[in-house]
Amino acid sequence: MYQPAEMSIWRGRVDHEEGALAVRWHERVTAMHGAIGPGVALLGFRCDAGVTRNQGRPGAKQGPTVIRQALANMAWHQTRLVHDAGDVHCEDDQLEAAQTVLAREVAQCLMDGHFPIVLGGGHEVAFGSFLGLARFAESQPKPPRIGIINFDAHFDLRGSERPSSGTPFRQIARMCQESGWPFRYCCLGVSEPGNTPALFATARELNVLWRLDDEMGIHQLADSQQQVNAFVESVDWIYLTICLDVLPAAVAPGVSAPAARGVALEVVETLIDQIKQSGKLKMADVAEMNPSFDIDNRTAKVAARLVWRLAR
Ligand SMILES: N=CN[C@@H](CCC(=O)O)C(=O)O
Ligand SMILES: [Mn+2]
Ligand SMILES: [Mn+2]
């Protein structure tokens, strides 16, 4: 289920006649195995099972490939090392097993001092990511308060028996309840037409903090920043998860459920920078990249740009 990095994917334009600073990602990313020090660890989660189970449009399995391809050609402005930590493959419908393997890999990256960025896959990636972070948290002398910040048009709080891309935060809430941990979840960019009253009721029951997409315009940025700041202040560690369908469909068409409105990229990027500057960000993932519905690699490029920014 786990496969080490396939480094042949890291290729792109070469600008060496421009001098020593003319460097792109494909010339700097190294394989995790044999890594020379802690850095950013890119880990792919190749999975269609979550979206398929959630009545969505499959294709996210190819997400990690197209995000890496888009990253490969980006200019290198990074100050830290970036390692490719390989991929977790979900075979057929073996979603739970794939999430368990992802958790193991994430926990290992964290133990080794890396900053994991997981490339999805549907949003079922979040349960594996959180499991890995929770495992690492348990190894700390003092258990940290973990806060989840999800940029998403959807709560993904479905209560279905079968895990899917629509259930990860409900699964996490259940796990927290069973373990006696508080569930701290902040969902930014929620679309009212995209979530039934039942999901809003669940969010209320679980004390979820949220902000609607139509409360996140550029003119409302200060209020959004204040809400994010208050949440960040209330926790020790942050797990950041970005569902690409939080962005307008014109910016991110390559997802299972494109957003009619969405939150502007400039707002999402500004808030991500704010979260990063807190120094509490422990890991991140980018979910729902689906190349089957992309237009001219727009979504892959925007996903890569977000990873680029997180990995600065
Ligand atoms: N991970 C995405 N989940 C959304 C999909 C909504 C849709 O397909 O319209 C959800 O379950 O609500
Ligand atoms: Mn979503
Ligand atoms: Mn989602």
Automatic annotation (TrEMBL):
Mn(2+) 1 binds at H123, D152, D156, C243. This is Formimidoylglutamase. Keywords: Histidine metabolism, Hydrolase, Manganese, Metal-binding. It holds the Pfam family Arginase. GO terms for molecular function: formimidoylglutamase activity. InterPro entries: HutG, Ureohydrolase, Ureohydrolase_dom_sf. Its cofactor is Mn(2+). It comes from the Bacteria. It catalyses: N-formimidoyl-L-glutamate + H2O = formamide + L-glutamate. Catalyzes the conversion of N-formimidoyl-L-glutamate to L-glutamate and formamide. Its EC number is 3.5.3.8. NCBIfam families: hutG (TIGR01227). Binds 2 manganese ions per subunit. Pathway: Amino-acid degradation; L-histidine degradation into L-glutamate; L-glutamate from N-formimidoyl-L-glutamate (hydrolase route): step 1/1. Mn(2+) 2 binds at D152, H154, C243, D245. Gene3D superfamilies: Ureohydrolase domain (3.40.800.10). CDD domains: Formimidoylglutamase. Belongs to the arginase family.
